[in-house]
Design goal:
Layout lengths: L1 H14 L8 E7 L4 E4 L6 E8 L5 E8 L2 E2 L3 E2 L6 E4 L6 E8 L4 E8 L4 E5 L4 E5 L7 E9 L4 E9 L11
Antiparallel strand pairs: 1-13, 2-12, 3-4, 3-7, 4-5, 4-6, 8-9, 8-11, 9-10, 12-13
């Protein structure tokens, strides 16, 4: 009887994929000098803030997870550029420009086709996106120094389907 149950459940368990199979990593670009960072938070990313030195490079990034802001990475310079996501909206692409010393531009694209573009469109291009259908940005990692962001990578995966509400 036990072996019959085993053979009945085996095909069903083969069809179910664990969510870890949907994880992917977009390898970091940039010099990689400075202090390592990884954004931290629980749930879905619901907003993004980015700071830049005028006509130069990205100095700081901060993500909001289910309406709680994570620790800022880098430094605040001037006013923050901010994108608040709608219910069910997700970051599905991170692109930009980098040079040997800093990230010069970053662009976050959402599942609704909206984008936050900050920085200068100069130097080498990068384009990060998830490998698996339905995956979204879960966290950013990289390096920063006392001036700005020197390296940036993206981690993708599935986020629970619990819906959240935003102010927009």
């Amino acid at each position: 009887m036990l072996s019959l149950l085993f053979f009945a459940v085996l095909p069903i368990s083969c069809l179910a994929k664990p969510t870890s199979d949907f994880y992917s990593y977009s390898v970091a670009v940039g010099s990689g000098s400075g202090t390592a960072f990884s954004s931290e938070g629980e749930g879905r990313i619901t907003a993004i803030r980015v700071w830049e030195t005028s006509n130069a490079y990205i100095t700081g990034i901060q993500l909001q997870y289910d309406f709680i802001w994570s620790k800022r990475v880098g430094r605040e310079v001037g006013n923050a550029h901010e994108l608040i996501l709608f219910d069910g909206e997700a970051i599905i692409q991170v692109s930009g420009k980098y040079h040997s010393n800093y990230i010069y531009q970053v662009m976050f694209v959402t599942s609704r086709g909206r984008a936050l573009i900050v920085g200068q469109p100069i130097q080498n291009s990068f384009n990060f996106y998830p490998v698996h259908q339905g995956a979204e940005l879960k966290l950013l990692s990289g390096r920063f120094n006392s001036n700005g962001i020197t390296s940036l990578g993206a981690h993708w995966g599935l986020v629970s389907s619990i819906t959240t509400s935003s102010t927009q």
